[in-house]
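Reopening: structure tokens for the dinuclear copper ion complex, inputs below.
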Amino acid sequence: MISIRPILSNTIRLIFVALGALTLSGCAGAPAALSPASPNAALVSDLFFVLFAIALVVFVVVESLLFFSVIRFRRKKADEMPAQIHGNPKLEMIWTTIPALVLVVVFWLTWQTLISLAAIPPNAMNVKVTGYQWWWRVEYPDLGIVTANEIYVPAGQDILFTLNSNDVIHSFWVPELGGKMDMIPGHTNRLWLRPTKVGIYQGQCAEFCGTAHAQMRFTMNVAPVDQFNAWVAQQKLPAPAPTTDQTRQGLQLMTTVGCQACHAINGTSARGILGPDLTHIASRKTIAAGMLPLNAENLRAWIRDPAAEKPGTKMPKVPLDDKTLDALTAYLLTLK
Ligand code: CUA
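Re-run output (same inputs, fresh job):
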């Protein structure tokens, strides 16, 4: 007789390996909500570990009782039909009361965390972030700065994010620092954070918002105060004037081919508000909301055919010849 046992055990082993690999691959690298870099994110991850421990105890107790019952009360050959009973008030009281108490504890811990997260500290720095399909407008109302997709904040300072949406519901999330907070059209949500560790943290839209949802990324650059101040000083400047024939032509083309309908460049006639502000685009590390590293090749390809780079993008494809593409790319790369 052929036994299917070896095949079965191999299959089971394979399933376990595949499941393990799938599960653990989610843990690799940043961003990870369980390696917090702000007291806000630490509150959430601490709560997670406490709830996980409670769940683990419940799991072990319930499964132990289950296995004990299965083994201890297993039907034997000689067994008669056991006495038929209905209900057991004492047992039912116990298995109702204990879970209710566990839930009260879980509720209380969660409530305390929510209260701590909701208490907006005074003197927090204001940053306004608006979700667009599929990028982020970032404004510093007190500093007069408008940028996109790359948020700079000083380390150790309380930051108050005012969150809105221009179209559909998005969600603002920087796993290591905090969130997720929904960005809802016509409604303002507030979220505060105190990023304590200098670094660049990945952010991601956490609410499905259409075709390019997965490519709706941003970074939170937590910088030492002096570096942040230097960034502010640079961002407040108008766009540098072009100095070569090609870049002068590039600036002129911004208006003639239609870029200015959606984009603004401070210090020029471009005042569009539908797309990201480009005044200091060359000071950013990426384009297309964190999707492509900023370099001449990517920028040119992006302008030539945006949807080929990022399916779904609202940026239209404008038929442009090579010379025009080169001039626009060259000009934009001067906007430090
Ligand atoms: Cu915006 Cu998902």
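Residues 131, 134, 170, 205, 207-209, 213, 216 surround dinuclear copper ion (CB under 6 Å). Residues 33-72+88-119 form one domain. Marking as resolved unless the reporter disagrees.
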